[in-house]
Model the fold of this input.
Amino acid sequence: MPDYDAIIIGTGQSGPALAQRLVKAGLTVAIMERKLFGGTCVNTGCTPTKTLVASAYAAHVARRAADYGVTIGGTVKVDMKAVKARKDSVVAPSRDGVEHWLKEMKGCTVYEGHGRFVAPNKVAVNGRELSADRIFLNVGARASIPPIPGLDQVPYLTNTAMVDVDFLPPHLIILGGSYIGLEFGQIYRRFGSEVTVIEAAPRLVAREDEDVSHAIADFLSQEGIDVRVNSKVVGVEKQGGSIAVKIESDGKTSQVVGTHLLLAIGRRPNTDDLGLDKAGVATDPRGYIQVDDQLRTNVSGVWALGDCNGRGAFTHTSWNDFEIVAANLLDKDERRVSDRITAYALYTDPPLGRAGMTEAEVRKRGKPALVANLAMERVSRAREKGETKGFMRILVDRDSKQILGASCLGLSGDEVIHCILDVMYAKAPYTVLQRAMHIHPTVSELIPTMLGDLHPLQ
Ligand SMILES: Cc1cc2nc3c(=O)[nH]c(=O)nc-3n(C[C@H](O)[C@H](O)[C@H](O)COP(=O)(O)OP(=O)(O)OC[C@H]3O[C@@H](n4cnc5c(N)ncnc54)[C@H](O)[C@@H]3O)c2cc1C
Done:
């Protein structure tokens, strides 16, 4: 007899919710967590960074107070210890909530330790071997540490340490001009640090359309962030109390000297110490666990959910993975990863909300398409709030009239995108959204209007 009906390794965004569904269905569950309950999102990812984004926004608006006719008197100061305390006050209850939820869950046993396969249906934890016919891996990912010469000789931060900083780094150098690096860059610039962002690609967030990348680079530069694109880091070294980052750009070398270094150049899955070889679970060359459209690995009775399967790198994709696995196992509902539409946000200010394809992807598809763009300067709600940076774009298939994708870079772009995303899920023609009456004054009210401006994508 197996010890449990199911074993779950990791308490990220899918593990705990899956545990609850399984015990409600009458199964016994063992769940393992080696570090912090709730995983990345709660402790070192979404939640802490979004509290920091909020503090940074408060500082930014306070500095702009005069624009709104408000007098502050004196310089705006940021108390970094108070910023961190606020962050902790939001994070701790979420983490404790996950821990208590699991520990009080009837039918679920919590093991606080590192789980590792010893056989296809057996996992060792805290010196014990536990067996189960169903094993779910929700082990997440961590910051990848690139092989930069000299990196082992200098102190550096990753997202994990960065969210616990309670002082102002005088000059923060960030390696990586993508989602994580840019959020931290703007946060710390608004707190008062000098910030340099170094990106190897020719532009920031290179998977976005070029004009989106350029608009983001523009507003970050306007805030005083030194953005270096097309810059390959070839070495780092200590220079007195500072850190020098050597860059190669168009064949020329130069250096940036700062006080602190943040690595934000990608993630790697936590699969290297999971005993996957003992179970025969296959990974790709980067260590991501290979799964099918319903998140089954190549080993019968083993599933992989969340960041570790390489099919998404977001809290909502991990949660959606939980829904897919639960639906297939418990509800006779054959949900699939391929049912979902790409969607995510970049939480700079203004944020970027994204759904489906970019314009570049639509062009590559080679079928007739329509496009509409709208500058945020034309949105009255944005003008009223004095936040008019950015633009919105919607792409439509000319023949089916279905929406192919959208980018909303601007005030509330992370929220506005959902009215488009939901119509995409409904597979309805864009005309349904065009005829909807939206509320005034909002940013979303301009989406139906924008659709009236659709024209052929050249
Ligand atoms: C700085 C930053 C900001 C982010 N912001 C956003 C955002 O705004 N929106 C968004 O959607 N996503 C964001 N993300 C991504 C998001 O945090 C992850 O996609 C999300 O947490 C999904 O994680 P997961 O469920 O795969 O596992 P994780 O949350 O990574 O959890 C995995 C858990 O497994 C545990 N574990 C690992 N191996 C073992 C083992 N062998 N034994 C026992 N336990 C183990 C770990 O300790 C961890 O607690 C951000 C990420 C970062 C780094």
